[in-house]
Amino acid sequence: MDADWIPFHQNPTKPRFVLPKGAVDAHCHVFGPATEFPFATERKYTPCDAGKYKLFELRDFLGFERNVIVQATCHGKDNSALVDACRAAGDMARGVASVGPDVTDKELAEMHEAGVRAVRFNFVKRLVDATPKDVFLGIAKRVAKLGWHIVVYFEASDLEELVPFLESLPTIIVVDHMGRPDVTKGGDHPDFQRFVSLMGHNENIWTKVTCPERLTVAGPPYDDVVDYAALIIEQFPDRVLWGTDWPHPNMKTHMPDDGTLVDYIPKITDEQETQQKLLIDNPMRLYWGQ
Length: 290
Ligand code: 0GY
Known about the structure:
Layout: E1 24-28, H1 52-62, E2 66-70, H2 80-89, E3 93-97, H3 105-114, E4 116-122, H4 133-144, E5 149-153, H5 159-168, E6 173-175, H6 190-201, E7 205-208, H7 212-215, H8 223-235, E8 240-241, H9 258-268, H10 272-287
Parallel strand pairs: 1-2, 2-3, 3-4, 4-5, 5-6, 6-7, 7-8
(1E,3Z)-4-hydroxybuta-1,3-diene-1,2,4-tricarboxylic acid (0GY) is lined by residues 72-74, 122, 127, 153, 176, 214, 245, 249-250.
């Protein structure tokens, strides 16, 4: 399979927004290089190589101090590139892995030692073949013993069906990209309201107010997504995370400028105290145990 998506931005602009010292990019990926870390045979798309050194370069250029590197579906359940990047970053990266029920305790312990602190359950149908919920639940019970949490990725229209499963998970749950609201439907739409109300009554549920570049219809600078993120941050300032999503896998329409993405942060919260929670306190508590 040839690369089937546009490469990441080669010359992102320097953000005008100066990130606070210690800021964490809490959603990003590493891909390959494929010669060293081949992509999974079951993948639904093939990305360009986007290895750890490129990620670290971007981290420093944008002004972040740390990364949370999330396993993406193009690497399947082979977490080697992720673990390698976490080890190379030292204490400056944590990882979110994808595992199957056959993962051994030894493998989990090795991942923990490298910096992995969560597993990701993906329900997005265009990205993965479905995994039975009881398999996910079995994995959740095992990783809970390590103090890990679960990251979940789903489309807004699938949330209603997923609620009982999410409520049965024994750990903190981090929902990717605000549960992917359809921004053409407005903030009052029942799908988005369902998500807000779930966060309201379940304190175990956190979310990443990320990926305006995926949710937007208007395009950069993503002003049509601002209200959704701002509302979530205002209501749940202690349970939100932010990340670039670099290298933006599987983007079909445009490739974001990562500097523009950082400049989106003050639009979704202009209060310094809340920015500190979003960018430092919350990810540090969840991934670095502070
Ligand atoms: C993201 C979003 C996407 C891809 C993946 O694991 C993945 O392949 O997460 C997507 O296509 O929406 O968070 O990177």
